[in-house]
Amino acid sequence: MTLGTAGGSGWRLQFRYAFAHDSSGTQDDYVRVLVNGSVVFVDRGQPVNRNATWQLVDVSLAAFAGQQVQVRVEANDGASASLVEVAVDDVRIFRGR
């Protein structure tokens, strides 16, 4: 998808996500979103039990105006013997006001 013309404003990425892990979670566990290879959002694990709840994320894409964009979601279970669950839904790219 191409985001209008260079210098255009108001482009947004919006999505909902849920991230859960058990008490063996570490900073090596994460969910992150990249646009054209640049990280625009990251949530990392911690050594506590975390239940999954839906969270809304809204990110400015102004830096990518005029470019064709690729959005990639990555999840990593980097800690040994841990449990990580990730869900992503309602992904939208739009031009706001």
What's the arrangement of secondary structure elements?
Layout: E1 11-21, E2 30-35, E3 38-44, E4 55-60, E5 71-76, E6 84-95
Antiparallel strand pairs: 1-4, 1-6, 2-3, 2-5
Oligomeric nature of the chains:
single chain
Structural class: mainly beta
Sequence of secondary-structure elements: EEEEEE
* Morphology call: elongated
Q: Would you tell me the overall average pLDDT?
A: 91
Q: Strand-residue fraction?
A: over 45%
**Can you give the helix content as a percent range?**
under 10%
The number of helical elements comes to 0
Radius of gyration: 15 Å
Give an overview of the whole structure.
It is a single chain. The chain is mainly beta and 97 residues long. The protein has one domain. It has no helices and 6 strands. The chain has strands spanning 11-21, 30-35, 38-44, 55-60, 71-76, 84-95. The strands form 2 sheets. Strands 4-1-6 form a 3-stranded antiparallel β-sheet, with no helix packed on it. Strands 3-2-5 form a 3-stranded antiparallel β-sheet, with no helix packed on it. The protein is elongated and about 45 Å long. The model has no long low-confidence stretch (mean pLDDT 91).
Notable features of this structure?
97 residues; mainly beta; elongated; three-stranded antiparallel beta sheet; 0% helix
